[in-house]
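hiii so um. not sure if this is the right channel but i have a protein structure encoded as tokens and i wanna go backwards to a sequence. like what aa goes where. can anyone help
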């Protein structure tokens, strides 16, 4: 056989058996004799036979591929989620197709269509900052593609999801600041229409209200949760009178921006200003001072949403109810928020 792509039909012709026999032999089917299996597998190896995955997918209705859409692949949290997904799905014979949106709705809609065209078995999605509706998800049910959310979810879409208790994580962070003696605490917030950032704001408000502290509107600064957003929040906050005593940031990169701006302006952390973040990015442990933050359990989240998909694969209908799992966050207390008061 001098062909660039050897098929099971070629092997069947050489061995004078049926193509179905070759297919079963390659899968070690018990109904095929050991001698036939050995002959088929030896010839397949000899001619470097590669199975036609696309054809197999059409026959079985399963591509054994799962699409994953993340806002930014270079964030440690999302990388940990992908790692957890890959570890769990690979053990069941699935492959990942990874897309990133760069926080843009148009990119998210395009990624959804790309994954539909690739005939993935499911899409696991964390929505972008710009996503406000589910119009781009409407075709998934028609295509029999399951959808699962992790971290950021659209609350009006009924499907399985795995998230962390963002409200509790924020509450623990702000309560810690209050226990250290900080009272005038600014919240650097994310976009309020995104479920996780709304929940973090609610946790902040709950802790402040329990402490009997009235929160004026100017203490909540909705900024891009990037270094530049944190720097802008610091400048805005420090122009208030009286000045803030601490910043609780809805993301670690914004907290990094606050910390850098504080250093540039001669503000001592934590003596003059306490700072906490959210996500437990690796750099937070190596800053000076190290940054108090909230661990979102990315690896665990990835494994759990993968298992949710695998469990739902055993159900017969796409409308079968899937779980909504809420993980417990962990407050990581470091030097940016510890006072000896």
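sure thing!! here u go:
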């Amino acid at each position: 056989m001098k062909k660039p792509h050897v098929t099971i039909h070629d092997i069947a012709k050489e061995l004078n058996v049926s193509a179905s026999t070759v297919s079963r032999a390659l899968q070690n089917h018990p109904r095929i004799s050991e001698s036939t299996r050995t002959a088929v597998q030896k010839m397949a190896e000899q001619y470097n036979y590669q199975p036609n995955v696309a054809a197999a997918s059409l026959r079985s209705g399963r591509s054994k591929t799962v699409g994953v859409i993340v806002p930014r692949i270079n964030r440690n949290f999302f990388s940990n989620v992908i790692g957890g997904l890959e570890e769990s799905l690979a053990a069941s014979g699935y492959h990942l197709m990874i897309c990133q949106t760069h926080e843009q709705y148009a990119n998210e809609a395009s990624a959804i269509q790309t994954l539909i065209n690739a005939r993935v078995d499911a899409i696991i999605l964390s929505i972008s900052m710009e996503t406000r509706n589910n119009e781009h998800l409407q075709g998934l049910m028609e295509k029999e593609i399951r959808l699962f959310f992790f971290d950021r979810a659209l609350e009006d879409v009924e499907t399985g999801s795995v998230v962390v208790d963002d409200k509790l994580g924020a509450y623990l962070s702000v309560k810690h600041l209050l226990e250290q003696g900080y009272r005038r605490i600014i919240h650097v917030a994310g976009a309020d229409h995104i479920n996780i950032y709304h929940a973090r704001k609610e946790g902040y408000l709950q802790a402040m209200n329990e402490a009997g502290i009235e929160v004026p509107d100017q203490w909540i600064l909705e900024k891009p949760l990037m270094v530049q957003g944190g720097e802008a929040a610091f400048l805005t906050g420090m122009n208030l009178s009286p000045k803030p005593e601490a910043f609780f940031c809805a993301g670690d990169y914004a907290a990094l921006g606050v910390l850098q701006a504080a250093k540039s302006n001669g503000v001592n952390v934590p003596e003059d200003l306490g700072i906490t973040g959210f996500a437990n990015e690796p750099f937070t442990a190596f800053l000076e001072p190290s940054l108090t933050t909230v661990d979102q359990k990315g690896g665990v989240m990835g494994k759990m949403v993968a298992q949710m998909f695998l469990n739902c694969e055993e159900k017969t209908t796409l409308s079968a109810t899937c779980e909504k799992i809420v993980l417990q966050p962990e407050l990581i207390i470091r030097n940016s928020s510890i006072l000896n008061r």
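oh and Residues 166-296+331-337 form a domain with the Rossmann fold fold (CATH 3.40.50.2300).
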